[in-house]
Write a structure and sequence with these properties.
alpha/beta, Rossmann fold, 4-stranded parallel β-sheet, 9 helices, 10 strands
Length: 341
């Protein structure tokens, strides 16, 4: 029987810290799955790209690959872009079938990992406002897929109730609304003594850093409120356990992605025109472009900003995503820019 390999498919970032953290997560998955050769690659910006990892698995004699998206929720990248790359590769190498795992999704392990990060922040902050006088702000990445966005709100609710905080709010780093700054300004009006800001992200990067920057801006305008910045998930052991479970689900038959609220399969309010959209990747032009700060993409200055805002549909990028129907919402949805002084 031929060898089975595991492919961890990341989004990619121009931020070198984010790339290093992804490598750490891939190594943690490798340690949890010693029975398989494990490779990793990125959809865009960083190297190696997904195809490189698949090439290595094929060279190692793998006759089947179990691919897992390195993403919390299933929006366009997990539903379309990564499958398009995998399907193209499989069509070129039919001798090596590729099975695709579901995203991490809503999971008790991930909620517990998130709770640990929030506890870390509260412990470091020390004695302050009690739970009932604390507001929790969970910040998601933001997507043009309302199903993925709604999952961030559910994470917030589970954490809100679990900790017994006085209130909970959700905001996003880009694409949808509300963005971080207007979200925190709204939260500041509610009268809570402490606001905990928790980025529900796997890795650092431009967006996480700007979430913290915008938190500092709002905090400066509201000195009467204590703002606590919680760390993101990173390589928490429970995150790594969840990745290993997703791989195992492929083999046990429990690999079920939520399609009931998928805008590509069902007519979701406001996104009716997306049903049946073709499955294709929009990232060929940034595959393997690498890290390195404020480089250029197609000769355009500020490539790091390009990474942060290439989904907002304003005509200044080279992707071809379907337009987001609420692009002109007053509280978003342009991706998080550098904090205003």
């Amino acid at each position: 029987m031929s060898q089975v390999g595991v492919m961890v498919c990341g989004h990619g970032s121009r931020d070198e810290e984010a790339v290093a953290e992804f490598a750490s997560v891939a190594e943690g998955i490798r340690e949890r799955l010693p029975q398989y050769p494990v490779e990793s690659g990125f959809l865009e910006f960083a190297t190696p790209i997904i195809r490189d990892g698949l090439d290595r698995l094929r060279a190692a004699g793998c006759g089947r690959v179990l691919a897992v998206p390195g993403m919390l929720f299933a929006a366009g990248h997990a539903k379309n872009d990564i499958p398009a790359v995998l399907n193209t590769y499989e069509a070129q190498h039919p001798e090596m079938p590729i099975d695709y795992a579901r995203e991490l999704a809503l999971d008790a392990k991930l909620i517990n990992a998130a709770a640990d990060r929030i506890r870390e922040a509260l412990t470091e902050a020390g004695e302050g406002a009690p739970a009932h006088e604390t507001l929790l702000m969970v910040v998601g990445r933001g997507a043009s897929d309302p199903d993925a966005n709604s999952n961030v709100a559910k994470v917030m609710r589970l954490l809100w109730e679990g900790f017994g905080f006085g209130w909970g709010e959700t905001s996003y780093s880009g694409v949808t609304f509300p963005l971080v700054e207007p979200g925190l300004e709204h939260a500041a009006k509610l009268g809570y003594r402490r606001i905990v800001v928790f980025p529900y992200f796997l890795f650092t990067g431009v967006l996480v850093k700007r979430i913290y920057d915008h938190t500092d801006l709002v905090a400066a305008r509201h000195p009467e409120i204590e703002f606590v910045k919680a760390p993101y998930l990173s390589d928490h052991p429970l995150v790594l356990d969840s990745f290993a479970e997703r791989v195992a689900e492929i083999l046990t038959g429990g690999n079920l992605m939520n399609c009931k609220l998928c805008k590509y399969r069902e007519q979701i309010l406001g996104f009716e025109a997306d049903v049946g959209a073709p499955q294709e990747s929009h990232h060929h032009h940034v595959e393997g472009i690498g890290t390195g700060g404020e480089g250029k993409v197609f000769g355009v200055e500020g490539a790091a900003d390009h990474h942060a805002h290439h989904h907002h549909g304003d005509g200044h990028h080279h992707h071809h995503h379907r337009p987001y129907p609420h692009a002109d919402h007053p509280h978003g949805p342009r991706s998080l820019k550098k904090a205003r002084a």
